[in-house]
């Protein structure tokens, strides 16, 4: 089974459509959306509806912190731009879309694969995996051989030996990486809808459960149109600029 691992869509319809088309060309048979369907971008309704269509066909979908923020009365802890986007997003979604987002799970387990938005030790608290120490904490908090996380917008791969030694590296796109069963792995595919590593191309990854191969991808898309929609919606200019620069 070839799984597409797509996370942090952030209401970016152009990026999502590009990733889905790219995955279809590779004959992906299972889709996993790891949360933050909304927030920041200008197409929350269209993105949510598209993911709902995939969920109806069996896709795995998680809740992210920006999805959860829609249902919080106090968002004062959020960055002002993110808070403004959340408040605007509430007005753009219908009851069915809101219900879908509200009821998404924090974690999904499939055989030796664990999917979470933020981390495995407390997926509902949205703490970041910023480096090796947090990656170790997350891997020690579960039994899965492979954990896949969103939340961090830069593609990263962590690996831990049987003795607990943990390392990390930034993967190159298009190169298949065999995930040895002699190690444990933590995969961060990067953000489809708002990359932050200086490259505006959308991020996602695939995992082949038959060959145990992981592949990261960068997918070009019309980020100028996506950024223009943010500006037209009256959302903070910084959110549009991020799509143009990938930072």
From TrEMBL:
CDD domains in alphabetical order: MPP_superfamily
Domain Calcineurin-like phosphoesterase stretches: 1-211
GO annotation, cellular component aspect: cytoplasm
Coiled-coil region list: none
InterPro entries: Ap4A_hydrolase, Calcineurin-like_PHP_lpxH, Metallo-depent_PP-like, Pesterase_MJ0912
Pfam family, one: Metallophos_2
Entry GO MF terms: phosphatase activity
Membership in a protein family: Belongs to the metallophosphoesterase superfamily. YfcE family.
Protein name as it appears in the record: Metallophosphoesterase family protein
Originating species: Undibacterium luofuense
């Amino acid at each position: 089974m070839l799984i597409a691992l797509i996370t942090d869509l952030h209401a970016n319809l152009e990026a999502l459509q590009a990733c889905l088309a790219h995955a279809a060309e590779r004959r992906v048979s299972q889709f996993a959306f790891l949360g933050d369907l909304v927030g920041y971008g200008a197409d929350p309704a269209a993105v949510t509806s598209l993911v709902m269509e995939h969920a109806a066909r069996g896709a795995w979908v998680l809740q992210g912190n920006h999805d959860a923020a829609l249902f919080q009365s106090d968002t004062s802890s959020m960055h002002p731009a993110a808070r403004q986007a959340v408040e605007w997003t509430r007005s753009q979604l219908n009851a069915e879309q809101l219900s879908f987002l509200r009821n998404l799970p924090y974690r999904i387990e499939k055989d030796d694969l664990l999917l979470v938005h933020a981390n495995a030790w407390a997926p509902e608290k949205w703490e970041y995996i910023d480096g090796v120490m947090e990656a170790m904490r997350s891997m020690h908090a579960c039994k899965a051989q492979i954990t896949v996380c969103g939340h961090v917008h830069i593609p990263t791969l962590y690996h831990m030996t049987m003795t607990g030694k943990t390392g990390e590296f930034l993967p190159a796109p298009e190169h298949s990486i065999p995930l040895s069963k002699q190690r444990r792995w933590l995969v961060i595919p990067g953000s489809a809808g708002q990359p932050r590593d200086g490259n505006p191309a959308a991020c996602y990854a695939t995992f082949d459960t038959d060959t145990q191969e992981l592949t990261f991808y960068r997918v070009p898309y019309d980020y100028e149109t996506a950024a223009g929609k943010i500006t037209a919606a009256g959302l903070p200019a910084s959110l549009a600029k991020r799509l143009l620069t990938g930072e």
